[in-house]
Amino acid sequence: MTSVKRLIRRSLHKLGWELSRFDCFSSPSLQLVRQLRTHQITVVLDIGANVGQFGERVRDAGFPGRIISFEASQDAHRCLRWRANGDHSWIIAPRMAIGQQDGTATLHLSANSVSSSLLPMLPAHIAVEPTSVYVGSESVEMRRLDSVASEFLSDTDRVFLKSDVQGLELQVLRGATGLMESTIGVQMELSLTPLYEGEPLFDAMFHELEDRGFKLWSLVPGLLDRDTGRLLQVDAIFFRS
Q1: For 26-103+144-240, CATH number?
Q2: Distance CA 49, CA 54 (A)
């Protein structure tokens, strides 16, 4: 989207209008922003931001609140800071991985950047997406959300947690026990079949979030096996019941 289109869209949002293509279905980002508005979300925690794709999409779709982005990869974090430049409500946290404990970890870097993970990748992932293959690694500081959230949040914030950390979603939750008590909604990229070693699959994460008081609101298709047509990953969006 050009800067002119983005300026027009943001101006219209201030007047309560949405600019979108005329078709039968809204984009996933527009649907999500409607959900955020319905639940009066004031801040989005963007865990696993990569180079800012998610943050830019929800901003362009009309989310007016704060976005706090976390990214572990050094190169991606540099691009993320550049992408958010000029948006004073889009805050880029220092480079770190988010997990269930404070310490250091090894990040495996994928050729396509978006598939980088702290977990070993399984052959099934590479078979359907050859550009996901690991090409290097780097050390990164790991922090629990409960350790860092207070630096960015206030007691009155209504929090939406988006986590796209390639198999580490359960670890993110376990490191955010305190924060999750006041979190209103969650979006997580979940696998339907094993793609990373040791990752919990959709069913397990569904029950984990349900036990924490969340209900499934929507699903957005993700990684697809183009040869067989099988869906391998989805973004699952939950809100408190």
Answers
A1: 3.40.50.150
A2: 7
- Mapped onto helix, strand or coil, the DSSP state of residue 102 is coil
Pairing of strands 233-240, 159-163: unpaired
H-type alpha helices, 39-184: 53-60, 74-84, 123-128, 145-148, 169-174, 177-180
Decide: helix, strand or coil at residue 3. Answer: helix
Going from N- to C-terminal start, the domains of the chain cover 26-103+144-240
Question: Model confidence over 111-138: pLDDT tens digits?
Answer: 999 999 999 999 999 999 999 999 999 9
How far is it, in rounded angstroms, from Cα 173 to Cα 29? 23
Mean pLDDT (the chain, rounded) = 92
Strand segments (E) across 111-182: 134-143, 159-163
For helices 74-84 and 53-60, give the axis angle rounded to 10 degrees: 20
Q: Which helix (H) or strand (E) holds 203?
A: helix 202-211
User: To which residue do tokens 């978006």 refer?
Assistant: 114
Which residue pairs from 121-130 have beta carbons closer than 8 angstroms and sit at least 24 positions apart in sequence? 121/195, 121/196, 121/197, 122/194, 122/195, 122/196, 122/197, 124/193, 124/194, 124/195, 125/195, 125/196, 128/223, 128/224, 128/225, 128/226, 128/227, 128/232, 129/223
| pTM of model > 0.85 | yes
